Design the sequence.
């Protein structure tokens, strides 16, 4: 098998593995020369763009885990969504000749998807955020109709007590109060965060009483595609989809927006909320809990990367950056909680 240009050995092995899993056989012997290009982005997995038999694909290699049940649950969500009427596109899995949606490349779980044209949108104005909110609402409405026989593998966001065996709440609080030597320069901030984090853990206990359904859980500009007309038309990356509080679908993109105090940011927040609630009618209790869920989102990210650091996947610098983000978000929330509440409940 030849390629258009020299490739690293691992990319050659990946291409050979994909060829043998998906395309080998008498019907594919005359295939055109394949090519492979690594895609940028993604801290949890590696992605490659493949061209095989004049068709384009995206290959995902799972780096954070090698748990087939997690991947099969993601694929079950996609399969169910594909049968539901919706106004957006989703990743389209390619099956092996045996009917499987997962295989192995270089010893790692892999999945192959059909390539979708488009680009990640640049969210710079209220109309962009309103469109993202609208798509998030339409996604939430579609996911509420998903029917699965699979049991969710990932726990809800708020079950941090079981989400990260390498970073349970007790370890995190100890980590913040008694920082590892690699984080001594952040010790003051970490100790300051410890009390707030403990209070956050306590406050999460009642979230299981809110409306629940399957949620995407990671909706942001990097996980959607827009077309040449600037319209968001596809939602990607359902890796972390699970049964969770419905309102988390709005809290996640809100969390990624906040942290500044410019007037434009508030206008964008209002637009995002307006887009979402034009589709999904949130209860008063759901609106009230969003500030807590925004902090939960940042805390979850911190625990995720501390776990990866403890397993030797990421360097301390990655955790350092996430700790800074959490500290900044907590400070921001202390200062802006009332204004955030006012835009979440405009009638009050």
Sequence:
């Amino acid at each position: 098998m030849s390629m258009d240009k020299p490739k690293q050995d691992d990319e050659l092995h990946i291409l050979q593995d994909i060829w043998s899993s998906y395309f080998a056989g008498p019907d594919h012997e005359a295939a055109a020369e394949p090519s492979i290009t690594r895609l940028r982005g993604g801290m949890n997995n590696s992605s490659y763009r493949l061209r095989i038999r004049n068709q384009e694909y995206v290959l995902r290699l799972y780096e954070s885990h090698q748990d087939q049940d997690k991947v099969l649950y993601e694929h079950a969500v996609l399969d169910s969504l594909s049968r539901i009427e919706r106004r957006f596109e989703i990743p389209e899995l390619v099956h092996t000749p045996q009917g499987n949606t997962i295989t192995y490349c270089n010893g790692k779980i892999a999945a192959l998807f059909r390539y979708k044209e488009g680009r990640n949108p640049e969210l710079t104005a209220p109309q962009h955020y309103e469109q993202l909110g609208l798509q998030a609402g339409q996604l939430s409405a579609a996911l509420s109709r998903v029917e699965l026989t699979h049991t969710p593998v990932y726990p809800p966001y708020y079950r941090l007590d079981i989400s990260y065996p390498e970073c349970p709440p007790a370890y995190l609080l100890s980590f913040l109060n008694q920082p590892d030597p690699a984080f001594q320069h952040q010790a003051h901030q970490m100790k300051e965060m410890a009390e707030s984090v403990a209070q956050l853990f306590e406050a999460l206990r009642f979230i299981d009483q809110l409306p629940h359904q399957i949620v995407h859980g990671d909706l942001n500009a990097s996980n959607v595609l827009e077309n040449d007309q600037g319209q968001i038309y596809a939602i990607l990356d359902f890796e972390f989809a699970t049964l969770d509080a419905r309102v988390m679908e709005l809290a996640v993109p809100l969390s990624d927006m906040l942290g500044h105090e410019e007037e434009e940011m508030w206008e964008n927040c209002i637009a995002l909320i307006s887009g979402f609630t034009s589709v999904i009618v949130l209860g008063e209790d759901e609106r009230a809990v969003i500030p807590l869920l925004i902090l939960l989102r940042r805390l979850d990210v911190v625990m995720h990367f501390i776990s990866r650091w403890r397993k030797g996947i990421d360097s301390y610098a990655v955790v350092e950056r996430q700790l800074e983000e959490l500290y900044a978000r907590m400070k921001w929330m202390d200062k802006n909680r009332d204004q955030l509440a006012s835009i979440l409940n405009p009638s009050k």
Q: What stands out?
A: Residues 37 and 126 are 35 Å apart (CA to CA).
